[in-house]
């Protein structure tokens, strides 16, 4: 399994849903809070071209928002 990074903010409901979804599937991930981590803030801007969260980096492929279909598709591609 490739590395999974979830870019979040503490007040983002969809971020919480995305993290819980990954946990329910047994997928480990690294969480980066863009409100306290300036490097993470710049990373999501570079990777996605926007500052909305959640942004998931699944093996170098980017998912903006909590999109179960896209997340599952990318996770299955990396098995």
Features:
single chain, 79 residues, alpha+beta, Glutaredoxin, 4-stranded mixed sheet, 4 strands, 42% helix
Shape: globular
The average pLDDT value, as a whole number, equals 93
CATH architecture verdict:
3-Layer(aba) Sandwich
Quickly give the structural class: alpha+beta
What can be said about the biggest beta sheet? 4 strands, mixed
> What is the string of helix and strand elements?
EHEHEEH
**Biggest sheet: strand arrangement:** 2-1-3-4
Q: What is the count of β-strands?
A: 4
What portion of the residues fall into strands of 2 or more residues? 15-25%
CATH class term: Alpha Beta
Helix share bin: 40-55%
How much is the radius of gyration in Å? Answer: 11 Å
CATH topology: Glutaredoxin
**Number of continuous helical runs:** 3
| Number of discrete domains | 1
Distance between the termini: 6 Å
Can you put this structure into words, describing what you see?
It is a single chain. The chain has 79 residues and is of the alpha+beta class. The protein has a single domain, classed as Glutaredoxin. It has 3 helices and 4 strands. A 4-stranded mixed beta sheet has the order 2-1-3-4, with helices on both faces. Helix 1 links the parallel strand 1 (4-8) and strand 2 (30-33). The protein starts with a strand and ends with a helix.
Record the SSE blueprint.
Layout: E1 4-8, H1 13-24, E2 30-33, H2 38-48, E3 55-58, E4 61-64, H3 68-77
Parallel strand pairs: 1-2
Antiparallel strand pairs: 1-3, 3-4
